[in-house]
Amino acid sequence: MSLLTVDNLKIYYATPRGHVKAVDGVSFDVREGEVFGIAGESGCGKSTLVHSLILRKPPMVHMGGKAIFKGMDLMTMDERESRRIRYTELSIIPQYAMNALNPTKKIKDIVWDLAREHGHTDRGELEKLLRERLAMVKLSPKVADMYPVELSGGMRQRATMVVSTLLNPDLLIADEVTSALDVTTQRVVIELLHHFMEVGIVKSIIFVTHDLALLDKIADRVMILYAGKVAEIGPTEEIISSPAHPYTRLLLDSLPKMGVQYRRQKLKGIPGYPVSLLNPPKGCRFYTRCPNVMDRCGELEPKLVEVGPGHYAACHLLGGENQ
Ligand SMILES: Nc1ncnc2c1ncn2[C@@H]1O[C@H](COP(=O)(O)OP(=O)(O)OP(=O)(O)O)[C@@H](O)[C@H]1O
Fold first, then answer.
1. ABC transporter domain spans which residues (predicted)?
2. What is the C-alpha separation between 307 and 239, in angstroms, rounded?
3. Residues near ligand 1 with C-beta < 6 Å?
4. 159-171, pLDDT tens digit by residue?
5. Distance in Å, CA 299 to ligand 1 centroid
6. How many angstroms separate the CA atoms of 51 and 60, rounded?
7. Among 151, 33, 57, 54, which Cα is nearest to 103's?
């Protein structure tokens, strides 16, 4: 069953030079019980996409499309309703989670403020829950009485994870939560996210990262974004073992291989630069960098074609409707 269905979503930024088309007709769904990964290079629209589901503030503008979450359209929901579901049904661990907590308040006061806003009245119960959850992420109960500045970066990260999930949201969005961490801490964070799902604290997770190798470890399905559009989407194993889009293949080739020294690896960077989202080119947005470019690529926008069960890619090489 789908928890979230995003249909042809367009989220732009209004700038003096025109609209930056950061998310430009993106569709996908997130099912109950799955980790859904979103990957792509810096600037492809990952953060814009997930933040637009939570809160849209200028210069971000919703230009079209829907995001149906548990029967409600997040795009047209009023502010009161969106505040009501925040933390209790839909929650985000932001990209800069280490600095996301209010520095002037103790952790226990931060959680009390947000729990009270959602109708909680028993502070003792809430603090008991906080201590249990702190223990779950291997933090001492004393952390409840500390200010965020008294915690190390890694501890603050875990405290933010506790705050974001304390009220058991159905869908948790983790936006680049591991990018500032060393490999060991990354593993701990990923294990914790899995644990949150296993014990039913959250039902589903959207995990955003520029690192496809990480998604191999955590995600059931993956969506690859390129310049505000879906390049490929499907089961993680399929995408990693049989990538159908030239961009996905290049992303995979750019990952370092285990057990081979850097100087012996031929790491292929992706040639060229991402296109401007102010004036994206006609046709496929990847054609300026694509090793398999054909004439029609600069003319016609490729549609998503099914290349395997539940596995779709948008590339003229794949034929189908695009021929
Ligand atoms: N406030 C803004 N005003 C104008 N353009 C913006 C704004 N914020 C982001 N953009 C542009 O929107 C596009 C998508 O940015 P976004 O941050 O969503 O990408 P991303 O894939 O999450 O990248 P990163 O991993 O670096 O955060 C980029 O071209 C970016 O320059």
1. 4-252
2. 10
3. 13, 15, 20, 22, 40, 42-48, 59, 210, 277
4. 999 999 999 999 9
5. 26
6. 10
7. 151
Strand 60-69 and strand 171-175: the pairing is unpaired
Domains and CATH numbers, the chain: 2-89+169-322 (3.40.50.300)
Question: Rounded to two decimals, what is the model's pTM?
Answer: 0.94
- Locate 149 and state its tokens: 């500045």
User: Quick one: what percent of the chain has pLDDT higher than 70?
Assistant: 95
Give the torsion through C-alpha atoms of 104, 108, 112, 114, to 10 deg: 60
State the Cα–Cα distance between residues 178 and 276, nearest whole angstrom.
Answer: 27
Could you give the CA distance from residue 253 to residue 266 in angstroms, rounded to a whole number?
A: 9
Determine the residue type at 213: A
CB within 8 Å of 192: residues ≥ 6 apart: 136, 137, 158, 161
The length of the chain in residues reads: 323
Pocket test for ligand 1, best of 41, 44, 177 (most atoms within 8 A of CB): 44
pLDDT digits (tens, 9 = 90+) for 277-297: 999 989 999 999 999 999 999
